[in-house]
Design a protein that fits this description.
The protein is 29% helix and 23% strand. The strands form 3 sheets. Strands 1, 2, 3, 6, 7, 14 and 15 form a 7-stranded mixed beta sheet that branches. It has a 6-stranded parallel beta sheet with strand order 10-9-8-11-12-13, with helices on both faces. It has a two-stranded antiparallel ribbon with strand order 4-5. It has 336 residues and is of the alpha/beta class. Strand 9, helix 5 and strand 10 form a beta-alpha-beta unit.
């Protein structure tokens, strides 16, 4: 806990059957890396372990039986390792695979020159999508996309409140707008993320450190509440506020990860309003591929998503800057 990461030489991985070796060109640094390396609240499966779960790069070598990819192909990587056989996988929900692992947490990750992953985890990355943006897609964009579309079931013309406008939330605002939301309300406690939210499409911004976000939402929706609220912080207060600000029959998708228990309204209110409170975890390969397609077409602008790029030797500086929110970064990317 609180210890610096160590950069050292390790043997280059060899891809096995169905696996691919990817030469990493960019790897995003995430709040989960802070939980592991700086806070010690997220345990890894073993130590020492290579962190990093937001990679993009070039196929360096393919293992036996791999088809569809060859050395030199540009790719980004869905970080979840799934079994494909359990009930959840068969039902089409591999993000909650019963045997799920994640590179950088339960397997060696991509804060390295090379990472070994199953070929089924690769998404082709077109030439017009830079590696750093491809890396950011594999978590910072895909996580709110899954929360909005798969869990929150956003429909065109609906009203949306996004709680938290950091690395996940700023993309949540963009994606809500792209998904046809008629009104997007962005909530945060800091001015810089709120300014960014406004720049990428929020109709209304609310500083929850100064104003009551529930009252603001009700005012903007004529007392009804929004159809969908997405919480991307993992704080009990904002989750409770998200529940209170949706209309009767509305949905709340919580993708923020935090240690505190969730407490919302008493059942006599919560039940009578028939509010759906739903957890949202991760994303799928197909969702990641859809986002790559949106970025390649120009519909999804990620040109402002990478706040800083640093070499692998400065990974600890990246972690410290992200933890301290120095200059309010959206995402910091490491280039091995």
């Amino acid at each position: 806990m609180g210890r610096d990461l160590v950069v050292e030489d390790v043997p280059e991985p060899t891809p096995g059957p169905g696996e691919v070796l990817v030469q990493v060109k960019a790897c995003g640094v995430c709040g989960s890396d802070i939980h592991i390396a700086r806070e010690g609240v997220t345990p890894t499966a073993f130590q020492p372990i290579t962190l990093g779960h937001e990679p993009a790069g070039v196929v360096a070598e393919v293992g036996p039986g791999v088809t569809g990819f060859r050395p030199g192909d540009r790719v980004c990587v869905c970080p979840f390792l799934t079994c494909g056989q359990c009930l959840n996988c068969r039902l089409g929900h591999p993000q909650v695979c019963l045997e799920r692992r994640c590179i950088g947490i339960q397997a060696d990750g991509a804060l390295a020159e090379y990472v070994r992953v199953p070929a089924v985890n690769l998404i082709p990355l077109p030439d017009n999508v830079p590696f750093d943006q491809g890396a950011v897609i594999t978590d910072a964009v895909a996580t709110p996309f899954h929360a909005l579309t798969a869990v929150g079931r956003l429909r065109a013309g609906e009203t949306v409140a996004v709680f938290g406008c950091g690395g996940l939330g700023v993309h949540g605002v963009q994606l809500a707008r792209l998904g046809g939301a008629a009104l997007v309300i962005a909530v945060d406690v800091r001015e810089a993320p709120l300014r960014r939210a406004r720049e990428v499409g929020a109709d209304v911004i609310v500083n929850a450190a100064k104003d009551d976000p529930v009252a603001a939402v009700m005012d903007q929706t004529h007392g009804l509440g929004v159809d969908l609220a997405v919480e991307l912080v993992g704080v009990n207060q904002s989750i409770s506020q998200a529940v209170e600000c949706v209309r009767p029959g509305g949905r709340v998708a919580v993708a923020g990860l935090g240690p505190d228990p969730i407490t919302v309204q008493p059942p006599i209110q919560f039940v009578r309003r028939e509010v759906a409170l739903l957890g949202s975890y991760g994303f799928t390969v197909s969702e990641t591929a859809a986002l790559v397609g949106l970025a390649a077409s120009g519909r999804l602008d990620l040109s402002r998503s990478v706040s800083l790029t640093l070499p692998l030797g400065e990974v600890n500086q990246a972690l410290r800057r992200l933890e301290a929110k120095t200059d309010d970064p959206v995402r910091i990317v490491i280039t091995p």
